[in-house]
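Section 3.1: Structural characterization of target chains.
Under the original work plan, the team committed to producing a structural model for every single-chain target entering the pipeline before any wet-lab resources were allocated. The record below documents one such target. The sequence was received from the expression subgroup and is listed exactly as submitted; it comprises 396 residues.
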Amino acid sequence: MSEFHPNRLQPVKTRLGVTKRRILESWPILVWGGVLVVAIWTYRSGVVFTRMNGAVDVDHQYVSSAEDGKVLKILVKEGDTVQPNGVVAEMDSRALKHEMQALIQGIAASRHEDILQLERTRISLQSELRGYAITQAEDKGKLATLKKTLGSEKVFKTDSGKILSNMDPEDLDKVNVDIAEAAARQEELPNTIKSVQADFERVDALIKKIQADIKYAENAISGEITPELLAALNASERSDLMEVKAKIDGCLLRAPKGGVVEKVDKLEGAFAAAGESIVQVVADPGRIVAFLPQDQLGKVKEGTKVWITPSHSREAIYESTVTSIGSRVTSVADVTSNMRNSRVYGRNLTIAFPAELRQSGESAPLFLGETVIIHTRPPGEIPLIERLFHSDAPDA
C-alpha cells in the first residue's frame, strides 16, 4: 500500500529545507526585531540640541578715580538706586582748582601785556595823526601864502617887446615848485590820514576786545568757563585749560549705567589710588550669557530666536534673540563625563535681555546672576519620537 497522502507534506530531506522552514515559522520574531532596530535608530538620530544653561549677566561697575587723591564726599549709601551717569562720590579737587586759577591768571596777565603793547601802538598812531593834521594845516597856510605871492607878480613889456616880471625868475620857479608840492601833499594827506585812522580804530577795538577777554578770565577764576573765553584763547591755552577742567570734572565720580549701590569701598577722607574702587554699583541686567558647545556651532547663529526659563520659576517663559557668538574658543568642565578632568570646548553666547521685561519695568522675574535655561524652541514642544521613547539623557 502506498504511503502517499495528498494532505501530508513532503518530507524535508536537506538541511537547506530545514533552515527555510524555521525562518518561515519564526517570521513574527524577526518582524518585531526589525521594528525595534528601526525605533532605536530613529530615536538616537532624533536626539537634537534643544536647550543649554546660561545665567543673567552681573554688570559690576567699580567706580574709581583717574587720579590719586583723597575722597572728599560719598554721596550714596549701600542699597541706594543710582540713575545712569549719576554722581556717587566726589574727590578733593582743591589743588586742581588752584592750578586752573593760576593758569587763568597767567592768561589774564599775558593779555594785560598785549594791551600795554597795543596802547603804545595806539599812542604812536595818535602822534602820527597829529603830525599829519599839523602838516595839512601848514600846507594849507603855505599854499595860501604862495598863491598870494604868485598873485602879486606884475608882468610888463619893454619897448623892445620883451615880457618881464617884477619877480626874479628863480624865485618865481621856486614859488611854483612849492605850490605844486603843497598841492600834491594836500591831495595825498586825506588818504594817508584815513588809513592811519583805520589802524587806530582797529587797535582801539582790539584793546577793548582783550579787556573783555580779561573779564571772562576773571569770571573763570571763580569756576565759570564760558564759550566766549574759550573763543578768546589760542590753541595751546585752550588745550591746557580744557585738560585741567577735565580733571576737575573727573573728580565727580559717576556710575555710567546706574543701578543699585552694592558696596562702598572707601570712606570720606580716605586716600584712593588711581583706578582703585571707591563705590561698587550693580547695573540692571543687560544681557544673558551662555556656553555653546563647539559641535553645536552650526545650530545657533546671531538673530536666532530663543526662550528663557528662570531656574526659580519654570512656568515663566521669556522670548529673546541671540545677539552675538564669541569668536574665542573656551572650555568648561564636563560634569557628565566619567573621565577625570574632562572638558567641553565651545564659545560664549550673548542673548539680549527679554524685551517684555524692560517694557513692563519688571526686574524681579530674572535676578542678577540667576541660572536660566535657554531653549532653542518653545518649551513643551516635544517631537513625536521623544514622546514615544523618552530618554533622561541630558542634551548637548
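The CA atoms of residues 173 and 179 lie 10 Å apart.
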